[in-house]
TrEMBL record:
Belongs to the NrdR family. InterPro entries: ATP-cone_dom (IPR005144), NrdR-like_N (IPR055173), RNR_NrdR-like (IPR003796). A zinc finger (unnamed) spans 3-34. It comes from the Bacteria. Residues 46-136 form the ATP-cone domain. It comes from Georgenia halotolerans. PROSITE patterns: ATP_CONE. Binds 1 zinc ion. This is Transcriptional repressor NrdR. Negatively regulates transcription of bacterial ribonucleotide reductase nrd genes and operons by binding to NrdR-boxes. Keywords: ATP-binding, DNA-binding, Metal-binding, Nucleotide-binding, Repressor, Transcription, Transcription regulation, Zinc, Zinc-finger.
Amino acid sequence: MHCPFCRHGDSRVIDSRTAEDGASIRRRRQCPACGRRFSTLETSSLTVVKRSGAQQPFSRDKVVAGVRKACQGRPVSDDDLALLAQQVEETVRASGSAQIEAHEIGLAILGPLRELDEIAYLRFASVYSAFTSLEDFERAIATLRAEHDALRAEEDGHPSVPPAAGP
């Protein structure tokens, strides 16, 4: 780490602390040449590999921008979108890999978006999964309905699997 004051090529770590968000480390350093102190903030990098092979840093803002289009006209707040982006980042970081395929980010968006707003989920899934026919929408809606029916059955105290028919 170069000293920002004298540009000396080395520094000594005096103190290290986890930053408030828990995703970075704040280090207090001292330059052995000029003796001045300075702080650094270290974060782990997460690189997104796009279909074209291009690489770029992960951005929560890009997640929010992509999902915001699907949420137009829906009762979804900016805070909801920020939380969704945080959940997506936590999911992709949990993979333990420094590089993640763009496709994996899309998959990580689908679950939290379904919980947030089912209409926005269908909009996003229709583009992300490249729906090409009404049957694609019908399958997605049927899956959502089946999940709703199973939840209602559990809430009502009924088993989610219908009993087998007798002989």
